[in-house]
Amino acid sequence: MVTCRDLPEVITQGEDMHDALEQASDAMAEAFAMRIEDELDFPFPSAPKRREHKVSPPAEMVAKAALYVAMQEAGFSKTQLARKLEVNEKEVRRMLDPHHSTRLPSLDKAIRALRL
Q1: Strands (E), the chain
Q2: So what's the pLDDT on residue 106?
Q3: What does the alpha-carbon distance between residue 22 and residue 17 come to, in Å, rounded to a whole number?
Q4: Quick check: is 81 in a domain?
Q5: Count of the separate structural domains present in the chain
Q6: Same-domain pairing of 111 and 65
Q7: pLDDT at 116 over 80
Q8: What is the CATH number of the domain that holds 103?
């Protein structure tokens, strides 16, 4: 059985340790998607305790969450970011859509634009 202190909604299991960690990655991806869709905050990850394992969702989901958090921190709306990137607001909505595939360079460019 796998749980996550920082994301209490993550509860899963696996047949063995390897499978459990893979399932945890998938569950974290779904938790990230839910937090983005419901416009909830992301907790800062705590340091692992003894006998705990570090797990991460897929890179694309991590990048989408990073963009979401960067927008919150910068106080940018989707429309404002679209203007800054010189793209249609629909493109920014797609970047933040957890179920829409977005290239990592596009997400990186958007995150960098918020940092300038």
Answers
A1: 2-3, 11-12
A2: 96
A3: 9
A4: yes
A5: 2
A6: yes
A7: no
A8: 1.10.260
Within-domain flag for 49: no
CB 95 within 8 A of CB 106: yes
Whole-number pLDDT of residue 64:
97
Q: Write down the pTM of the prediction.
A: 0.90
Contact of 61 with 100, CB cutoff 8 Å: no
| Residue in 76, 80, 57 with CA at minimum distance from that of residue 68 | 76
Q: Do 32 and 67 sit in the same domain of this protein?
A: no
Give the three-state DSSP class for 47. Answer: coil
Do 20 and 14 touch, CB atoms closer than 8 A? yes
Taking Cα atoms as reference points, which of 77, 89, 84, 80 lies closest to residue 39? Answer: 77
User: Are 77 and 108 in a shared domain?
Assistant: yes
**20: containing domain:** 2-37
pLDDT digits (tens, 9 = 90+) for 2-41: 999 999 999 999 999 999 999 999 999 999 999 999 999 9
